Amino acid sequence: AVVSTQSRIGTFSFLGSHLYRAELIKRRNFMLVFNALPSVDSFFALSGFLVAYLLLKQLAKRGGLTPLQWIAFYVHRYVRLTMPYLVALLIEGWLYRLLVTGPRAQQTTLSSNNMCNQYWYTNLLYINNFVPWKVPRAGTGTCMRQSWYLANDMQFFLIAPIFIVLLLRRPLLGVVVTGGTVICSALSAAVIA
Q: Exposed/middle/buried for 93, CB within 10 Å: 0-12, 13-18, 19+?
């Protein structure tokens, strides 16, 4: 659902007529595309439950984690995600422009290629959702636009153990900190929107 939505939304910039876009929005089969945010939220929730379950299982089994085990916890996730991500980044960032032909090929590949040449490292550091980009004569763009999800998921993975361990070791404080974070997140989203 997430990839399907990202690819369809990406094609809307190439549809010439605003009337045609308005007609597409009314179609029942496009309801999933325009209402895909709950699917993204559910994937984040599932990822959070999985991280919590696996971490709590390790903590219960070992009675805690040493600093070296914490490092291994993070490095394992980084390596497991980054290797296939790097291959996809190489294909979309550099090889794609060599393989794509057609009347709009340069327009579709120019922005992404420029972004990948300049900001490829932000994807590998999983901070590509924080770095703003402006490209002269090409508008705004990102390197591998759909990878914002991986960056968010990795960032959630980095901070989740703080809340999980706090809830495990000091439940009252954990509930207060977690609840306060959720309230601040909701308020910030309301202010931004």
A: buried
